[in-house]
Amino acid sequence: MYRTASTVKGGRRFSFGALVVVGNRSGQVGYGYAKANEVPNAIEKAEKYAKRKLLSIPRIGGTFNHEVEGVFSASKVRLVPASPGTGVVAGTVVRSILELAGVTDALTKCYGSTNARNVVKAVFDGLEQLQTPAVVADLRKQTLERTQIEDRIEKGKAFMPKSTGKEQRARGPVNTIGNERKGRGGSRPRRRGPEGGDSGGAPADGGAAPAPQ
Q1: Alpha helix (H) ranges present in 39-159?
Q2: How far apart are CA 100 and CA 102, in angstroms?
Q3: φ, ψ for residue 153 (rounded to 5)?
Q4: Total Cβ atoms within 10 A of residue 66
Q5: DSSP state of 15
Q6: Which of 8, 57, 171, 206 shows the greatest Cβ crowding within 10 Å of its Cβ?
Q7: In terms of domains, do 99 and 35 share one?
Q8: What kind and span of H or E run contains 7?
Q9: Can you give the residue range of the structural domain that contains 42?
């Protein structure tokens, strides 16, 4: 979120800008930036713009096909393929984009400016340069062969834990608002007010509590 202020005759007028990244975690990701006078409106507009500019990313397994380098303004981001099990080694901004794009293994490095907007645009500049092995082989007019990235992925799979299919997914948080409270001593009794209500206060006869001896 960004906040800007413009000075007018009656004082200062504030507006808000939102940078939103959306993705399906299966190879499609996009970003949008929008401004509005209210925060929810800015987020809604930015999300709408992001969905209009979805980018399809070619991948091999959970990583990139080849190394790329994206540049925008004073920011430069290098995206490097990684073997299975490496994870996404990146900062907060780059990690969010890659995870929404469905990338599970990657090495990254940012150079220059770390401004969030510049870094996001630099990452997408690099993602737009990704190409499938078939396209690269066609451009070079060569036959399609097994790439080094594919060899590294196959070698890395040997060190990955094998799934037995019996693992249970972690349960999400459960909404308990409105349910009866149950602690170690059971439900807590309600306090009675002077008129027999649920609010606390002095006893119904109006007398004060006795002082301790």
Answers
A1: 39-52, 92-101, 116-127, 133-140, 148-157
A2: 5
A3: -65, -45
A4: 19
A5: E
A6: 57
A7: no
A8: strand 2-8
A9: 13-56
Q: How many CB atoms lie within 10 A of CB 46?
A: 23
Tokens of 70: 């994206």
Tokens of 164: 């037995």
Backbone φ, ψ for residue 68 (5° rounding)? -135, 165
Q: Are strands 11-23 and 2-8 parallel, antiparallel or unpaired?
A: antiparallel
State the Rg of the chain over Cα: 28
Are 40 and 72 in a shared domain? no
Neighbouring CB atoms inside 10 A of 115's CB total 15
Sequential pLDDT tens for the chain (213 residues): 778 888 888 888 888 999 999 999 888 999 999 999 889 999 999 999 999 989 999 988 888 888 999 999 999 999 999 888 889 999 999 999 999 999 999 999 999 999 999 999 999 999 999 988 788 777 777 777 767 677 667 766 666 666 565 656 556 566 666 666 665 555 566 666 555 555 555 555 555 555 555
| Shared domain check, 35 and 17 | yes
**Do the beta carbons of residue 31 and residue 19 sit within 8 Å?**
yes
